[in-house]
Amino acid sequence: MHLRVVRVTIAPGKTEAYWAWSAEILKLWDEAGVVRAGGPYATKGPSGEDVGVWLTVHESEEQARKQFQGLYEAGRGKELIALRPPLVAETTGGSFAPWDGAGSAPLAPSW
Known about the structure:
The chain has helices at residues 15-32, 61-72, 75-82, and strands at residues 2-10, 35-36, 41-44, 50-58, 88-96. It is built from three helices and five strands. Strands 1, 2, 3, 4 and 5 form a five-stranded antiparallel β-sheet that branches. Strand 3 (41-44) and strand 4 (50-58) form a beta hairpin. The protein is globular and about 35 Å long. The relative contact order is 0.30. The protein is of the alpha+beta class.
């Protein structure tokens, strides 16, 4: 199992719009069977900026890539992902593998 972690710094002044958009993304993910490991979580960055942390679980990095490409290449997913750029200042991510899903924590990312 792979734990995919994505940290999003929300664009200044876009926090409310970002979380409204994320609710639509979550509906899309739930309909498509994306497995979430909790979240997304709202937090603050080191300078007080608003941050979202997204956690998903996949069989492999390849499976994650294919699943998200399939979601965002057409239809509602394509429409939603097109709305993302003005809401986001920065995105970083990584994958932790192997991840056993039983609660063992990976090493903290070096954000």
